[in-house]
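Researcher: I've been going back and forth with a colleague about how nicotinamidase might be arranged in three dimensions. Neither of us has a model we trust, so I'd like an independent prediction. The organism is Arion vulgaris, in case that matters for your notes. Sequence below.
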Amino acid sequence: MSLFNRYSAEKFKDDQDSYASVFEYFDKNRDGFIDTEEFLDLLQDLLTSDTDLKLLLNNEDVIFLFSHLDLDNDGHISLNEFKSAWSHWFRQILNPVKALVIVDVQNDFITGSLSLCNCPAGQDGSTVIPVINTLLEQSLFDVIVYTHDWHPENHISFIDNVSRRNIHHTSKVLNDDVKLFDRVVFEIDGMPREQIMWPKHCVQGTWGSELHPGLMVVENAFHVKKGTNPDIDSYSAFWDNNKRFETELSSILRKQQVTDLYICGLAYDFCVGHTATHAVKHGFRTILIEDATRGVSLDGIAKMRSELITKGVYFTESHQVPKLKSELRPLCLAVQAAINYKLAWKMIQKSIS
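Model: Here is an independent structure prediction for nicotinamidase. You can compare it with whatever you and your colleague have in mind.
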């Protein structure tokens, strides 16, 4: 059994007795420091995967994480450095603040005008609903967010509106030839803007824009609407596609002190994937719940998954989510926590100097 299970979730305490006893336990040679060899033992006890009780770590992983805790770069982690890491790095790993972001589980994507059943992958969007509901029933999350595609009638993504805007000269598809799912380059404010053409969907205030009636909607949840600008699409729940306008999602999560973002919903290769991408960029430890999302095309899903892996997103199934609250502690999430910790420390040092 891992020593760190004594300190996981609500058992975590940010006090001297806790961090000093853990430090002493791994300071095997009793020299008052944690060296890289002792740090390897610590990591093997701290981190676990869904397949191995003891995670196999390569030297590169160990050095990377060690360097983020060795704040003065002297090749050792002192008790003071360990104390700081305990309050910030260890806390993220052992006692994270978790948010579930449920992306666009709306009528139009399930049985309406842009039903995933009619998209190239032929997947049934309604199958995510019981999975998400089961997660909600377990009260696993500190914060719940529902996102809504919320388009005006004249939105740039609607194929019915293709003639409303000028086509840029670089577009390979012209007005008369545009079909669903084509990529058209419009001229907006004198600049090219590529846009995939979709059926009219999730128009503000319509039945299609409503959350599916089978989806559990919890009290005190946050609701974020996106895609409201007629001239810019917005797949991500954080930013529009041109990253010109930010939603309130990041602000909500920061105010709630969220560290870990669990993402599910529709569609995997578009709004879910882009939300996960921006979640990592905002510094959140990001987990995608794969059996709680469906996509538009199989190729698009595979491509998005590969991209998210390189960004450090952790993939899980819904039945594993409760374990992530306690005994399951993946390497990639520890790495993101280390990056967050070192960045915050540098910002503090810069403000002091």
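Researcher: What would you highlight for our discussion?
Model: I'd start with this: The beta strands are 98-103, 143-149, 183-188, 191-196, 222-226, 260-266, 285-294, 314-316. After that, consider the following. The longest helix spans residues 331-352.
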